[in-house]
Backbone:
């Protein structure tokens, strides 16, 4: 079964314009259904929660419904395990501040050198309280993390391993379920940054058995907003950051300073609406009966389409002698997402997007806040990498337009 790309694109009004968007790892285009939900909330229930009057009750029901929708999206066991907030960077900082209070001097945290800085810096900062931070580095030949290297880093004092699900530079998907089992066998916790993974694959935090998981909703076709998942047992025992009178058992509220953003939370139900309709459009009478299973069907379609557009661009880049793809050079939906980074011999990376801009195609260069990885690869002096980050609403025709633009440059 093939994704009906013309129907898909109708859900994203921005795609009707003249620009081709290949900077989606920096932020995807927004579903009209998300905007409609936000408007509905603001225009018909924009009041404070918790009052006895009917509009306040409606507002509370809508925010609760949104939490249930996001719990379904990641397959959390309860909406109480879903903490909403302004950004992934902020959510990880809050998590580190709260969880760090349960650690003692001499305890150890392991981070990687291939993550976005959000899932490194928040933990490195705990060194100020005597926590030892170790770096799990990708291997220079494969640019992949290896469990044998993690084994050498872990000790009886290891409390947490923090890593990315998919690199926002390399596109590589890490085997989180396997790593989580490995970490848990050694009595530690795992915190996963799913920002670069979530637009492309359906998340199942229960199957992965992760302790914490974060993602940015503005990269999953929604507004500038974020989600932190935590196992209920951890969220209950950790101290919160909210007012002193907020009870320890009051999760997720004790981590949501100033409460959630009501309209943005409710807006994310538009993503649930979209995934349901995507399944119904393609599967007809064979559409699953429940929302979670419909999400599975929708993402199966997304995976297949993304592999095709990824393959088209990688095949082109692999056949250019001056181009070096940074990361896996073959399209495979099981091991990489369609976030493709490369460098061109003899060209500073900043030159290429500027030459693509006149073609009304948006791409980007730099370190993408994975500065430690770019420095490890020795690419800082070249301006980092050129990154083309695609999602399922992109088309083979758009990829061909980009290739035509590249042909004029290298």
Residues:
């Amino acid at each position: 079964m093939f994704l009906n790309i013309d129907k898909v694109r109708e859900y994203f009004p921005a795609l009707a314009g003249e620009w081709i968007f290949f900077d989606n790892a920096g932020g995807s285009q927004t579903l009209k259904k998300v905007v409609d939900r936000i408007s509905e909330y603001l225009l018909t229930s924009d009041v404070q929660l918790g009052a006895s009057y009917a509009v306040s009750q409606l507002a509370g029901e809508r925010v609760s419904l949104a939490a249930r929708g996001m719990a379904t999206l990641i397959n959390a066991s309860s909406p109480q395990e879903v903490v909403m907030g302004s950004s992934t960077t902020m959510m990880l900082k809050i998590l580190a501040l709260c969880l760090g209070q349960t650690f003692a001097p001499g305890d150890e945290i392991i981070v990687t050198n291939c993550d976005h800085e959000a899932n490194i810096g928040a933990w490195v900062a705990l060194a100020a309280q005597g926590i030892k931070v170790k770096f799990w580095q990708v291997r220079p030949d494969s640019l992949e993390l290896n469990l044998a290297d993690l084994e050498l880093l872990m000790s009886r004092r290891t409390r947490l391993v923090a890593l990315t699900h998919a690199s926002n530079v390399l596109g590589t998907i890490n085997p989180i379920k396997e790593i989580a089992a490995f970490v848990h066998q050694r009595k530690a916790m795992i915190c996963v940054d799913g920002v670069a993974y979530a637009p492309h694959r359906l998340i199942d935090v229960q199957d992965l058995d992760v302790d914490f998981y974060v993602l940015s909703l503005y990269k999953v076709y929604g507004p500038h907003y974020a989600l932190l998942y935590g196992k209920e047992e951890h969220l209950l025992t950790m101290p919160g950051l909210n007012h002193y009178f907020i009870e320890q058992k009051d999760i997720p509220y004790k981590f949501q300073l100033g409460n959630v953003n009501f309209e943005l939370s409710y807006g994310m139900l538009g993503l649930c609406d979209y995934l349901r309709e995507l399944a119904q459009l393609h599967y007809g009478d064979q559409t699953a009966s429940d929302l979670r299973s419909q999400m599975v069907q929708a993402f199966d379609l997304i995976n297949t389409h993304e592999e095709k557009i990824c393959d088209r661009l990688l095949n082109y880049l692999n056949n250019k002698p001056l181009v070096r793809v940074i990361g896996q050079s073959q399209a495979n939906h099981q091991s990489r997402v369609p976030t493709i980074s490369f460098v061109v011999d003899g060209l500073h990376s900043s030159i290429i997007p500027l030459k693509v801009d006149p073609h009304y195609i948006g791409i980007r260069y730099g370190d993408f806040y994975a500065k430690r990885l770019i420095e490890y690869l020795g690419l800082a002096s070249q301006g980092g990498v050129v990154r083309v980050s695609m999602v399922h609403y992109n088309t083979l025709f758009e990829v061909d337009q980009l290739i035509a633009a590249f042909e004029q440059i290298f």
